[in-house]
Amino acid sequence: MLHRNMHINPFKFKVGKSQGWKEPDRFPQMLRLKQTGNLKHHKAACYSTLVPSDEVTVSYRYGLPVVTLMLPSRKERCQFTIKPMLTRVGTFLQDIQKEDKGIERAEVFTTDGSKIPTTALMEILLMNDFKLVINNTTYSVQVPVKEKWSREHATEAEDIKSLVHRLFIALHLEDHQLRRERELLQKLDHLREQLVPLEQMKAKIATSADAKTNRLLWTGLALLSTQGGALAWLTWWVYSWDIMEPVTYFITYGSALAFYAYFVLTKQDYVYPDVKDRQFLHYFYRKSRSQHFDVEQYNKLKEALAEVEESLRRLHQPLHLQLPIQEINDKD
């Protein structure tokens, strides 16, 4: 029993009947930790700039890749749906900067540090893992392997694409034809206006060149006739055939030598129609230079006019709309 006047020590406690009273330490023991190593390394560990790799993720939704990243200024995660066949890397980076005005720098590199140009398609970028640099932070982006479609799904997708293409043609082909026809007619009128003065000048030059060519042909005929008459007069009235035979031989040999020299210089046979055309072009180009007629510009306008007329002909023949120009020409 305890007496009333007994002073109880608050630091004593009873641990058991057989052990009696035990007085613990007045001051509890404390665990002391001592920092070791260089203090700079501990500070660097407290302010590490390492970024978790899952802050920028790539996933596929409805067949399209979705890039999810954390906007540095807004501290919000934002998703960007990519069209790989149409979107370029530069467009993707511009969309990120538009979404967060605090982004001053956005670039994409390969895993080995090579910079990817902004003109590259996102389809090329998403083939392998890459690094996305936003301001001074580098994100390692892992691109998941896209599941390949089975042959049945691929065939079904191709059928749907073909159906959509046919529907689009059926709904918009007539409007497209009319709009295209108006554009071609305007271009045709413009080309014809440009060709009118050139055609007039060309007709004058061609008339002059043709006249000179015909005069040259008649001059050649006159010279050959004169030569024949002179040989006949020398053979029957002045000398005999025994004397004139070697002369005619050397005249024939000289003509053959002249024809061979023509082939060597022009790489063409001495055929009278080709010789006439060649002489006509010679006179035509010489007259064109004196009249300041631009032959190259005229040829370009004529080629453009022929292309426009061919396009109009294809528009007016619906059965040939899907055929190339070569096949249309062969069928005609």
TrEMBL record:
It is found in: Membrane; Mitochondrion inner membrane. Residues 99-301 form the Calcium uniporter protein C-terminal domain. The keyword Mitochondrion applies. One of its GO terms (cellular component) is uniplex complex. Pfam families: MCU. Belongs to the MCU (TC 1.A.77) family. This is Calcium uniporter regulatory subunit MCUb. It comes from Gopherus evgoodei (Goodes thornscrub tortoise). The lineage of its organism: Eukaryota, Metazoa, Chordata, Craniata, Vertebrata.
